[in-house]
Design a protein that fits this description.
This protein is of the alpha/beta class. Helices cover 32% and strands 21% of the residues. Helix 7 links the parallel strand 9 and strand 10. The protein is globular.
Length: 569
C-alpha cells in the first residue's frame, strides 16, 4: 500500500521534459513512483486530467517578519508555493542589537513598503544573532518550507551602527573581521544565501539610502571570503548596474566561488540595460562564474485605487475632507457631487505627487475584470481621455468612482517600456534566468505580485493574445526545478522517485489569479493587497495536504530549510 496515489493526472515533472498522463505515488513524504503505479493507496485522488506539478519554489519573497507570526504564509500558499526564500535585497531582521530593532523596521518599511506599525506589533524580536533568528523560525510549523538569507543591511548596522547606516566611512579591519565571522556563523546555522542591495531605489522610511549601497571592495571581499570558507550559499544582488558594477559583483562571486543571482528588470530611463546585464551574466558563466538573472513574468505595477496606498486624489484637500467615509459612500459622492468633481478634476494641487500622477496617468490602465496585465498603450487613461476629449483626471475619477469604489488601475512602472510583454518573453526564455521578482510579503498596499507563479501559467501558457506563448513544461521548470537548483535545494522541484513530495493538482481550465482585493488582516489592522486564485484543487507539502480547493486543511508540515539540500537522484 502507498500512502497516497494520484491517478490519471497530466504530470509535468519540473525537468522540462514532455508531460505524461499517469499516476503519482507518495510514501513517507517522498515521491516513489511516476507513470504506472502498481498497488493501491491508503488515499487515492482521481486527478481526472488535471495538471500535477511540483510545488512552486519562490526564491524572492520578503516574509522575514510575517514568517514569525503567520503559519499559513498567505498569499503565497494560496498560489501553490511550497518553498519560499526570504532575506532578499539586503533587508531583514537579524542580526540585531537590543534597542536597535526600530532601525531594521524603518529600513524594511522604506525598502519593501511594509508598514512599521505592522512590523512593530507583529515581530517580538526574541533573538539577537542570525542563528537565533533561524531557531525562532524553526520553532513554528507552517504550511510550507521556508529558507532565509543573511541580509547585508542588517549585518552592516549590527557591526558598524550609525556609521554604516549613514555611509560615513568604511568598516575598520576589526569590523571586516567581524563581518566574516558573523557571515560564517550564519551559513553554518543554515542560511541559503547572502543578500545585498546596491540600488538608490532602496531607502529607509526616513529617507536614508540602504546601508549596503556604500559597501566598497574590502567589504565585498570580506563577504566573499566568508562565503568561500563556508562553501555554501548564493550571493543575491539588487543593483542599478551602473558602469563597472557587474564586474565588481562578478569578482566577488569569483572570490567566493559561490553562485551570483541578480535581479533583471527593465527600467524606463535605460530600457536596454537589462539586455546588457544578461549579456554579462552569459559571459560570466562562460568564464566559470555561475550566475543567474532573476526575472518577472508580468509588469511591475503600482495599483491605484480609492483605498490603495496610492490614491490619485489622495493629496487633494477636497478628497481629504471625505476620506474617512466608507468607500461606497465616497464612490457615490465622486459620481454625483458636481462641485466636488469640479474641484478634483480642475483644481489640482501643485506638488510633486500631482506631477508624478500626471505622468503615471499616461501609462495607467483599468485592470478590469479580465485582469489584463498586457494592455494596449491606446487604452491608457490619458489615451482614453484624448479620444473622448476629456481631462485624464475626469476619466480616472469616473473609473475609481464606479460601483462601490473597488476599481483598481495598473500603473506598470517597470518591465513595460514598450507597452507589451515581448521583453519579458525574451527574459523568461533566456537559459540563464530564473523566476524571482514577485516580492511576496512586500509592497503590501501598492503591488500585488505574490500571484505571479499562477500568472506564469495562465498568461504565458494559456491566455496570451499579443504575442507568443511558452510551453507549459518550460514554464513549470522555470519556477520549480530551476529556482530550486539556483539555491541549492536539490531535493525538490522534481516529481521523480526520491524527491520531496511537494506538488499541486491544478484544474488548468479554471485556473485564475483572482481579482485584487484589500484585506485588513495584518498586525495592527494593517492592509494588504492580495489575489485569491481559483483552480488549485490540492496542494501537498512533504506528502501532506495543506490546501484543498483554496481552503487550508490545518496541516502544517512545512519546516525551515537549513542550508543546501542534497540531490536524491
Amino acid at each position: 500500500m502507498h500512502d497516497l496515489v494520484v491517478r490519471d493526472g497530466v504530470i509535468i515533472d519540473g525537468s522540462g521534459s514532455a508531460q505524461l498522463t499517469g499516476d503519482l505515488a507518495i510514501n513517507g513524504g517522498l515521491v516513489t513512483a511516476v507513470g504506472e503505479v502498481d498497488g493501491a493507496g491508503h488515499r487515492e485522488i482521481n486527478a481526472d486530467g488535471q495538471l500535477v506539478l511540483p510545488g512552486w519554489v519562490d526564491v524572492h519573497t520578503h516574509y522575514d517578519g510575517q514568517a514569525t507570526w503567520d503559519p499559513e504564509m498567505t498569499p503565497s500558499s494560496w498560489h501553490g508555493v511550497t518553498t519560499a526564500v526570504f532575506g532578499n535585497c539586503g533587508v531583514g531582521f537579524a542580526p540585531v542589537h537590543r534597542g536597535s530593532e526600530e532601525f531594521l523596521i524603518n529600513l524594511m518599511e522604506g525598502v519593501e513598503d511594509i508598514p512599521g506599525t505592522v512590523l512593530a506589533e507583529g515581530i517580538d524580536f526574541t533573538w539577537q544573532s542570525y542563528p537565533e533568528y533561524l531557531d525562532v523560525l524553526e520553532s513554528m510549523p507552517r504550511v510550507m518550507d521556508i529558507g532565509s538569507q543573511i541580509p547585508h543591511g542588517a549585518l552592516r548596522f549590527f557591526v558598524m551602527g550609525e556609521r554604516g547606516a549613514n555611509h560615513d566611512e568604511a568598516p575598520t579591519v576589526d569590523e571586516l573581521s567581524l563581518f566574516e565571522q558573523l557571515i560564517t556563523e550564519g551559513f553554518h546555522a543554515g542560511a541559503l544565501g547572502f543578500s545585498t542591495s546596491r540600488t538608490t531605489k532602496h531607502k529607509a522610511a526616513d529617507g536614508r539610502l540602504t546601508p549596503s549601497l556604500s559597501a566598497g571592495d574590502p567589504e565585498l571581499a570580506a563577504i566573499a571570503n566568508a562565503m568561500r570558507s563556508s562553501g555554501t550559499g548564493v550571493l543575491q544582488v539588487n543593483s542599478d548596474f551602473g558602469p563597472g558594477e557587474f564586474e565588481i559583483l562578478r569578482e566577488a562571486a569569483r572570490i567566493s566561488q559561490r553562485p551570483l543571482s541578480a535581479l533583471i528588470i527593465q527600467v524606463d530611463h535605460s530600457p536596454d540595460l537589462w539586455r546588457q546585464t544578461l549579456d554579462q551574466i552569459r559571459e560570466a558563466n562562460a568564464q566559470g562564474v555561475t550566475a543567474t538573472g532573476q526575472v518577472g513574468c508580468r509588469p511591475i505595477g503600482v495599483l491605484l485605487g480609492l483605498d490603495a496606498t496610492v490614491n490619485p486624489f489622495g493629496n487633494h484637500p477636497a478628497y481629504k475632507a471625505i476620506a474617512d467615509l466608507p468607500t461606497s459612500e465616497r464612490a457615490v459622492l465622486l459620481r454625483t457631487d458636481s462641485a466636488l468633481r469640479e474641484q478634483l478634476i480642475n483644481d489640482r494641487p501643485v506638488d510633486a505627487f500631482s506631477k508624478w500622477m500626471n505622468y503615471a496617468l499616461t501609462r495607467a490602465y483599468e485592470l478590469g475584470p479580465e485582469l489584463n496585465y498586457e494592455p494596449e498603450p491606446s487604452t491608457s487613461v490619458s489615451a482614453r481621455a484624448e479620444l473622448t476629449g476629456r481631462s485624464p483626471w475626469e476619466v480616472v475619477l469616473d473609473l475609481l468612482a464606479t460601483g462601490n469604489g473597488e476599481t483598481l488601475l495598473l500603473y506598470p512602472f517597470e518591465n513595460y517600456t514598450s507597452g507589451s510583454l515581448d521583453e519579458i518573453h525574451e527574459m523568461l526564455t533566456d537559459p540563464h534566468t530564473i523566476c524571482g521578482v514577485g516580492d511576496a510579503g512586500a509592497h503590501v498596499g501598492t503591488i500585488c505580485d505574490a500571484s505571479y507563479p499562477t500568472y506564469l501559467l495562465t498568461h504565458w501558457g494559456r491566455d496570451r493574445t499579443r504575442g507568443e506563448k511558452i510551453p507549459l513544461e518550460f514554464l513549470v521548470n522555470k519556477q520549480t526545478r530551476r529556482t530550486a537548483e539556483a539555491y541549492g535545494l536539490l531535493d525538490r522541484g522534481l516529481l521523480r522517485p526520491g524527491y520531496k513530495a511537494d506538488f499541486n493538482i491544478v484544474d488548468f481550465e479554471r485556473l485564475s489569479v483572482g481579482q485584487p482585493e484589500l484585506l485588513y488582516d495584518l498586525p495592527a489592522g494593517g492592509k494588504r493587497l492580495v489575489q485569491r486564485p481559483t483552480g488549485y484543487s490540492h496542494t501537498f507539502v512533504s506528502g501532506t495536504e495543506v490546501s484543498c480547493e483554496g481552503e487550508v486543511t490545518g496541516q502544517r508540515p512545512g519546516r525551515l530549510v537549513r542550508g543546501a539540500q542534497s540531490d536524491p537522484g
